[in-house]
Write a structure and sequence with these properties.
This protein is an alpha/beta fold. The protein has helices at residues 58-70, 96-110, 126-135, 169-181, 187-190, 194-204, 208-212, 220-223, 251-258, 275-284; strands at residues 11-20, 26-34, 42-49, 74-79, 115-124, 142-148, 161-162, 165-166, 237-243, 263-268, 295-296. Residues 274-280 and 282-297 have low confidence and may be disordered.
Length: 297
């Protein structure tokens, strides 16, 4: 694989930039930005995940975000509350607290002197889910999202109750997330409090499966965070990407049929990887004119 390290902008990286939420909870963010940040303002790209920026996604992050920063963006990769090096606890996937934190990070970023007021979100799988979900809350500064391998229906088109049937992946994914959220924060980042933070997480962790099994019908639990409930709530431009052999292959078609705002959709013949975002992000993020929806194939 060819590695590109020369960009239009030289970049600087902050391994741990604290972002304080309104309730006092500290989120830890890894941030890449153009070196000439003091004399300029740039748009921001947010990726908001529970997958631990110091180890879980460190490989892909070190290629993706520097590329964007080198082309004139500030990239913020947050550890979600209760994960990685951030404070607090995570109670479940796609919760109001997760979305509120993302809204506050967007508002914080847009108000910084190095931001021009425009923010985008991007992500694959979890990050693709919450990018659409946060867009449905319509924060003013959020101009566009890239949602890769995601869903618009948490109940019927995720790993839970496909077609109403309980999927075995409920068991696999709940244990997978338990392994992520049960890991300790990095003492190099959080200092001497690392063990107390870790023990608090362990004492409050629940297996998500027990919660999911208590909602075997498409009730309000699943409707929350399912953007198909009201596509019109999304005001930002959207780029939706999936592949015919991906587990999440239906979202692009659903959005093309129903979405009312600027939309591009890409369906590939095989599996999708995050490099596709590099090719298409600049076509859409912070676009200044309306684009006709359609499928690129």
């Amino acid at each position: 694989m060819k590695y590109v390290s020369k960009f239009p902008h030289k970049i600087i990286e902050h391994a741990n930039m604290p972002i304080i939420m309104s309730d006092g909870c500290r989120l830890s963010a890894r941030v890449w930005m153009p070196e000439d940040i003091e004399n300029n303002q740039f748009p921001v790209i947010l990726e908001h995940l529970p997958y631990r920026k110091r180890d879980g996604t460190i490989v892909r992050d070190q290629y993706t975000h520097p590329w964007f920063a080198g082309h004139g963006y500030v990239c913020i990769r947050t550890d979600m509350r209760g994960n990685g090096d951030s404070d607090g606890l995570m109670a479940d996937e796609y919760t109001p607290q997760e979305h509120q934190d993302a809204l506050e990070v967007i508002e914080w970023a847009a108000s910084q002197p190095w931001c021009n007021g425009n923010v985008g979100m991007m992500g694959i799988s979890w990050g693709g889910f919450n990018a659409l979900q946060v867009a449905a809350l319509a924060p003013k500064a959020l101009k566009a999202v890239i949602s890769l391998c995601s869903t618009v229906d948490r109940y019927a088109d995720d790993i839970h109750y496909k077609g109403g049937c309980l999927l075995g992946e409920n068991f696999g994914w709940s244990t997978n997330m338990l392994s992520y959220s049960s890991r300790p924060p990095d003492p190099e980042i959080v200092g001497n409090d690392w063990r107390e933070m870790w023990m608090t997480r362990l004492e409050n962790l629940e297996l998500d499966l027990s919660r999911w099994l208590n909602h075997q019908h498409r009730d309000e639990y699943w409707k929350y965070g399912s953007v198909c409930e009201d596509y019109s709530a999304i005001k930002a431009a959207v780029l939706s990407i999936s592949g015919w052999h991906d587990g999440y292959r239906n979202t692009t078609n659903h959005l093309v049929k129903t979405f009312l705002h600027p939309l591009k959709a890409l369906l590939a013949l095989g599996y999708i990887n995050t490099l596709i975002m590099l090719v298409h992000l600049l076509q859409l993020v912070f676009c200044k004119k309306q684009n006709d929806g359609g499928i690129i194939g």
